[in-house]
Amino acid sequence: MERLPKHYSLLSTIAELKKNKLDFLSADPDRVTDNKSTLYLTKLLNLPVSCISIFDDTEWDFNLENPNASANITGSKLKINFSKYKNIPPYVIIELKCLLLSVQLTPEVFINNRKKAKKTNITKLATNTILGHLKSGFRFLDTLFRVLKVKLGNEHIEKIYSSLTQVQAIDYRETAQVHTNTYNDDLRQFFSYLLNPYTSEHIFGENIPAFDPDQFSWKKRYKKKVSNQVIPNAAFDKLIRASSLIVHDFLQTMEEEVLDSYVSRYALQTETQYCNKVGITKYTFQLYRAYRLLSAGYEDSYIESKYGIPDELRNSRGKYNLKDMRSYLARCHGFNFSLSEVNEHLMLVSSAAKYLIGQYTGMRPSELAVIELHTCLTEESGIKLLRSHVFKGKDTSTKGLFDDKWVVIPIIEDAIRAIKILSTITERSLIFSSLHTKKNNEKEKLQTSVMIRHQLKIFIKLVSPDDDLGFSNSMMRHTLAYQLYRLEAGLPLISFQLKHLVNTVDKFLSRGSTSDVTMGYGGIADSLVESQTAQKLRKQSEIEVIKATADPDGNYLGGKADEHKERLKTAFKGYMASGYSKEEIFEAMAEQGLGVINVGLGYCYGSDSKNESLPCIGSLRCNPNRCSNAIVSEANAPYWREIYSTNLANLNNPSFADNREQIKEVISEAKGVLTLLGHGVPNE
Is 277 in contact with 337 (CB distance < 8 Å)? Predict the structure, then answer.
């Protein structure tokens, strides 16, 4: 980090601690008699450590130094209260305060000695990260000195222990067995700071006893839970389709234009009218909005001027009475209008729209939290972009993609429009905001990652109640990357929107603002996630396509299916005889790039065809119902499902009236293959 003159002054003062501490070891700061030591201690205790804190303060507050911190970080995560650690002797607290400042001012020195560093090019540590490490260390040392006080007596500890250099390695080991907090990465990093040569030289003046905390018998040791990084394919498809239809239905109900033509076609098959079922129309929405705003204390003149209030809601004295409004809404125009059901459905629309934005942008929660509803959309060279703010990794070198701006595809724009309509009820200016109506003059607060996850889970729980997804916000980002890798690996299109996303990003990139070359599916995925995660997700997608197309125990249909399966069994038998498991073989195949193949409508063994008079025209005719050389597996099913769904939607479309017979034939072809694969399809 760039150091200012005041930083060098701080480091210089800290470095003097080792020379002066011998003069006041075991002494109370108020009773130090040596003039030189007194002057130094006064200087040290009055050092400014932040805009509002000095060294001697019991609490250090770094919030003003981090005005752009995300909602997850502001507040207590940027403060540390030293008075909480009552068992640590005063001079040890001074040493630890010096350590904290040293890590903050010379992070590059401490990063190189960390037990675990994900990125080798990191030169800066966030303040909240450092405080997290130090707080964990303070908790441990508080336990350590409490144990020592029980063992040696409180008076002995207060008189004798004035430096961490006096603590023995066995003391750390014994404390680990009784420390009630979990030994995790934060505590591991703290110990790496403590054992850093810089700390010994510039703070302690001597080495502390060496120890390896990883080898201790900890009472509680952190074990990383095995959790899903990505939403399973079937659940992803279900969530995307349901959220798209819910937003589409709401916009149509509000008589708004729907930009996403694909969802419009798909909606024709479902005939699901979500809003209509709970009595929501454009008119009843207007009534409900007036009720919500009046209930929140807004003046009727404000509501009338901004949105209008139907005259039917006025009583005989020309006033709006909430009780009268409630009874009117319950019986309005013959609808079975339940306020609780309407509120529940509008919450569902909101969370579905937010899920679409989160899933198709891959934004982090901190980035989602600050999207301004009315100013977030912008346009560059004819391409619509969504503006937010990136908090993480701003000081590292990036490709520029997803750096404060994200491409906007039609379904995202539809989702934003739905939230804008809903914001007329909540009177909020952020896309990810509370679902309650904001009181007049109430200051809007940014949503934390926990709040955002809660809102999204409203939608996920309703749409996919039987799927234990273990949902977290990062799953959307990883799932987007994973689906893009799947497409590049040759697996079938899961969502039309993913291809739409890539096509739009390609246009954005072709202008040279991010890259001179087309990034493609995998390139965009690489930009979304860190390199280690990217490698894992890419490999996972390639293994999936190998399992779908080259698993000797897989299900294949067609005239050559048995032959195809036998060839695979022969190949795998040789590998397994050498001691490899089937999973290891799949991994080896992925590492050799065998997963990157094009899985389309099916596979062909046409080289063995005896009928030379019949040329192969491929495409829709390349299926086991038409050709004995064709093979299809479960991997091909989504393509056929897409063909079936798209053409079924077009069957009664007046625009395609001249091609009705051809469309019916394509539907029949796709239905035959899907039936062969065991996929139930409704009659057209």
Answer: no
- CB burial of residue 187 (10 Å; 0-12, 13-18, 19+): buried
Q: Roughly how many angstroms between the first and final C-alpha of the chain, as a whole number?
A: 65
Instruction: Give the span between the Cα atoms of 609 and 628, in whole angstroms.
Output: 9
Nearest to residue 256, comparing CAs of 419, 409, 377, 498? 419
- Other beta carbons within 10 angstroms of residue 20's beta carbon come to 20
CB 54 within 8 Å of CB 13: no
Question: 393: phi > 0 → left, psi -120 to 50 → alpha, else beta; which?
Answer: left
Contact in structure between 303 and 440 (CB atoms under 8 Å): no
pLDDT mean over 40-61: 92
Question: Quick one: pLDDT band at residue 665, thresholds 50, 70, 90?
Answer: confident
Greatest mean pLDDT among 80-84, 308-312, 359-363, 612-616:
80-84
CA distance 6 to 464: 56
Name the burial class of residue 229, with classes exposed (0-12), middle (13-18) and buried (19+) by CB atoms within 10 angstroms of its CB: middle
Sign of the dihedral through C-alpha 651, 655, 660, 665: negative
Residue 322: strand pairing partners: none
Closest CA to 544 of 590, 479, 591: 590
DSSP at 432: S
Helical H segments across 153-194, by residue range? 154-160, 169-176, 185-194
For residues 648 and 626, the answer to whether their CB atoms sit within 8 Å is no
Helix (H, G, I), strand (E, B) or coil at 48: strand
Token readout for 311 is 């005259």
Higher pLDDT, 526 or 169: 169
pLDDT tens across 272-329, in order?
A: 678 988 889 898 898 889 889 988 888 888 888 888 887 777 766 777 777 777 777 7
**CB distance 428 to 373 below 8 Å:** yes
Bridge partners of 61, per DSSP, are: 79
- In whole angstroms, what is the distance from residue 135 CA to residue 218 CA? 18
Which sign, positive or negative, has the C-alpha torsion 481, 485, 491, 496? positive
The CA–CA distances, whole Å, from 476 to 364, 432, 515, 544 equal: 9, 15, 25, 19
CA atoms within 13 A on the CB side of 591: 6
Q: How many residues does the chain have?
A: 684
One-letter amino acid for residue 481 of the chain: A
Greatest alpha-carbon span in the chain: 110
> Whose CA is closest to 56, among 44, 65, 66?
44
Q: Cα–chain-centroid distance for residue 435?
A: 20
Cα 352 to Cα 636: distance, rounded to the nearest angstrom: 29
473 token code pair = 């916000």
**pTM for the whole thing?**
0.70
Identify residue 419 by its one-letter amino acid code: I
Q: Are strands 630-633 and 603-604 parallel, antiparallel or unpaired?
A: antiparallel
- Strands 603-604 and 556-557 turn out to be unpaired
